[in-house]
Q: What sequence folds into this?
């Protein structure tokens, strides 16, 4: 074949790595090239010097003023007294970076020092610890929490043993959250991660505020501001979880949780909507085994999981590699409770270095499906609503979902007779999907080290209703007869994709080890269309924002 010097050089590098895995750290290969100009060929002779096979004598750590040596040592795949393995040592540094306890550890931070007399090496690894404790008083505005204020404490390396402890107290106009969690990564010094979470949350959803802002003139004709779809959902419960690694980068896990949730209507229009939608012949949309309507839900959930993580660089901002997480959420059934549904989810992430390793191309694909079983439905708050800081960034929170026509009747006074009569008018409802898919792309460009980053992005996805029979409604027609009505979607809202593109400015905040983000986005696939009511034929328009600006804390992925 044609002589290629670059391929030859890479072959020597691979050969050195192969010998390094077997302890021959001083291996050398010297090529001798004899060119025959007449025949246009080259004769290649490689002189190999294996030298001695080295063993590990001692492994020492420096700079870990709080983190115990055993916390670092249990991530190291090279053992004292064993043959030195360069590939295992590289993977050890990768595993240590994934912990997130230290600033990024690079190969030059480790000194592999051969003994001048014995076939042994001493390994000295220098680390620099990150701030492990954060106590914060925070407030502001986010797409999910609305305006909020809170107090939080978190440590990802409790007392230097690698345990994670977190307390969150947050109150907001949309969402309040009170949570305590603890994680033990090595139970009884074994590779068994266990932990628990206790939580109490509340969430208020105001459709008028989300869809149209605070301007009642933008509401569809015939619909007053007070008649929008609104609900309040409260939940309290706990989760117990555990996971175990296998084949270095893989992990299997199991999560069990109990959640007591209460969903209540804020106004009569909301109650009417939820009471009318059916998933089966005799059950309302958010019905439980005990009956329909707004009520208590007792969800008993078991979630087996499988994950793969082989990313490089800081845990919060990988620079290369990939990760995969799959879960299967099973709620109710044999576990008891009053709701029954299942939800498989897949989350894949890929990071590729660009521009000679200076920049990073980051990709995330998320897909999920949810369905009820045993003649009960998926609770409304468990359906899929996209939009916001953590999926499709240019849209408002819960804005991306199939939109259904709903014909409602209101009592009005007949100006001629003075009698009260019932007349239909057209409404729309954001019903939530049973299937979702999201693709996120970011091109991360560090401006000032890892502190300040610019990241152009493109997000695309949607939530869809595939099981339309689970949105069947039972309503009374004009003659007072109870009839079954199939779901009717506004054209284009239960098909295709919605996309958003723009740029983020990210500032890493060392206290909380997460970026503060300014998000500038435009929405090329937004809804800005005129629709006509199914009952009255009157027109109404839905106008989503052409562009958006947000600020928040944390990563989209």
A:
């Amino acid at each position: 074949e044609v002589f290629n010097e670059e391929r030859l050089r890479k072959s020597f590098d691979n050969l050195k790595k192969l010998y390094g895995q077997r302890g021959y750290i001083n291996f050398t290969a010297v090529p001798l090239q004899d060119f025959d100009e007449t025949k246009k060929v080259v004769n290649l002779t490689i002189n190999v010097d294996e030298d001695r096979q080295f063993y590990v004598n001692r492994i020492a750590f420096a700079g870990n003023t709080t983190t115990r040596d055993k916390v670092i040592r249990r991530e190291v795949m090279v053992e004292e007294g064993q043959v030195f393995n360069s590939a295992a040592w590289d993977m050890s540094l990768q595993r240590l970076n994934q912990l997130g306890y230290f600033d990024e550890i690079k190969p030059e931070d480790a000194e592999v020092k051969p003994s001048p007399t014995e076939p042994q090496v001493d390994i000295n690894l220098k680390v620099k610890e990150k701030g492990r404790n954060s106590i914060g008083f925070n407030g502001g505005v986010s797409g999910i929490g609305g305006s909020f204020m809170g107090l939080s404490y978190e440590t990802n390396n409790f007392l230097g043993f690698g345990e994670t402890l977190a307390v969150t107290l947050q109150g907001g106009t949309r969402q309040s959250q009170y949570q305590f969690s603890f994680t033990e990564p090595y139970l009884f010094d074994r590779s068994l991660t266990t932990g628990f979470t206790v939580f109490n949350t509340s969430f208020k959803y105001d459709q008028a505020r989300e869809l149209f802002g605070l301007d009642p003139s933008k509401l569809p004709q015939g619909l007053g501001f007070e008649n929008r779809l609104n609900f309040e959902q409260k939940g309290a419960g706990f989760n117990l979880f555990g996971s175990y690694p296998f084949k270095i980068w893989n992990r299997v896990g199991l999560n069990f949780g109990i959640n007591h949730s209460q969903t209540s209507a804020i106004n009569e229009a909301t109650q009417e909507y939820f009471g009318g939608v059916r998933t089966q012949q005799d059950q309302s949309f958010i019905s439980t085994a005990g009956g329909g309507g707004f009520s208590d839900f007792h969800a008993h959930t078991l979630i087996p999981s499988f994950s793969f993580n082989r990313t490089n660089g800081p845990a919060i901002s990988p620079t290369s590699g990939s990760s995969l997480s799959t879960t299967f959420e099973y709620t109710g059934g044999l576990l008891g409770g009053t709701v029954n549904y299942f939800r498989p989810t897949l989350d894949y992430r890929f990071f590729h270095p660009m521009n000679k390793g200076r920049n990073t191309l980051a990709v995330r694909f998320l897909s999920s499906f949810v369905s009820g079983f045993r003649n009960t439905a998926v609770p409304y708050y468990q359906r899929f609503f996209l939009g916001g800081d953590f999926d499709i960034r240019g849209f408002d929170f819960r804005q991306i979902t199939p939109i259904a026509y709903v014909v409602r009747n209101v009592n009005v006074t007949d100006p001629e007779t003075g009698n009260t009569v019932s007349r239909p008018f057209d409404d729309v409802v954001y019903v939530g999907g049973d299937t979702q898919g999201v693709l996120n792309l970011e091109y991360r460009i560090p401006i000032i080290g890892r502190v300040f980053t610019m990241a152009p992005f493109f997000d695309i996805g949607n939530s869809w209703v595939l099981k339309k029979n689970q949105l069947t409604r039972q309503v009374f027609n004009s003659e007072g007869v109870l009839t079954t009505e199939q779901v009717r979607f506004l054209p284009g809202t239960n098909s295709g994709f919605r996309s958003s593109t723009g740029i983020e400015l990210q500032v890493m905040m060392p206290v909380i080890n997460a970026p503060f983000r300014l998000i500038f986005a435009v929405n090329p696939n937004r809804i800005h269309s005129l629709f006509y009511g199914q009952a009255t034929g009157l027109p109404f328009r839905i106008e989503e924002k052409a562009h958006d600006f947000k600020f928040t804390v944390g990563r989209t992925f």
